[in-house]
Here is the input.
Amino acid sequence: MTQKQSFEKLKTFIEGKIIGQQKLVNRLLLALLADGHMLVEGAPGLAKTRAIQVLSEAVEGDFHRIQFTPDLLPADITGTEIFQPQEGSFQFQKGPLFHNLILADEINRAPAKVQSALLEAMAEHQITVSGTTHKLPEPFMVMATQNPIEQEGTYHLPEAQLDRFLMHVVVGYPDLEAEQAILRLNRSETLKSIQHEEDIPEKIISVHDILEARKDVMKLYMADNVEQYLLQLVMASRQPEAYSNDLKGVIAFGGSPRATLALDRCARAHAWLEGKDYVGPDDIQAIAHDVLRHRILLSFEAEAEGYTTDKIIDTLLSLVAVP
Here is the structure.
């Protein structure tokens, strides 16, 4: 079985468990292929937590869920030095970050110092405790969730941390047919649980398959004019007035070079999942919102006038010439 066939099988498995959230499933696979992390925002009950759990069932590696709370400490996630009286020395005890797939549930409920403890882990795939650097397992992926409707007891995520996320995905409610399918799936799973007939799925995809697929993704052909289109899109977020006078003063900060790298990796992964052997402008457009949504900061005046980041990205996509 080729790597592409393995990912197709993985996608089919997840979509059988996560109904009505095809975009979320697609973005999970993109993050896995592009070696990045995801921030998922949506109302409670939209399968955000379930999605990463289902992924962990089918991917070789281990999974850990961290429930972020206001009293969480950095050492609670990174690990700490524990004194061993028998040996008269300190020994490092690994924290929950030492797993392949991490669910950072309700990440905005923890204070900034805990959120910042994730920065090194997400960017460098390592953590440093007491001057000693510890490598994290590969592959390593963090999927963080946040609830947009309940802000009491939450903390704003620092921009430096937001930029570490490859994508910021917003999920919405399923339609009527999907809701009915969810209801029936839940009944079936509940009945199996009562009868102790729960299935233990086999691992569909190995670490080797993931790493080899990542190599294929990075080798995908991208024409020079498509690469220029990608670059111009990011540049337009920094200097929007060069494309339209209406956008003057609307954007306070545009996409950083990390946005360029993220667009490139995600567009390649999107094309690869679509079965293409090249990257086209449509692949860049398909993932532009999720990659740029958290990297473009609007000015105070723009927010007061009712602008949103998604609307600005729509405008930039309409202004930048497509090759």
Observations:
- The domain at 3-194 is CATH 3.40.50.300 (Rossmann fold).
- The chain has a mean pLDDT of 87.
- The chain has two domains: 3-194, 220-319.
- The first strand starts at residue 38 and ends at 41.
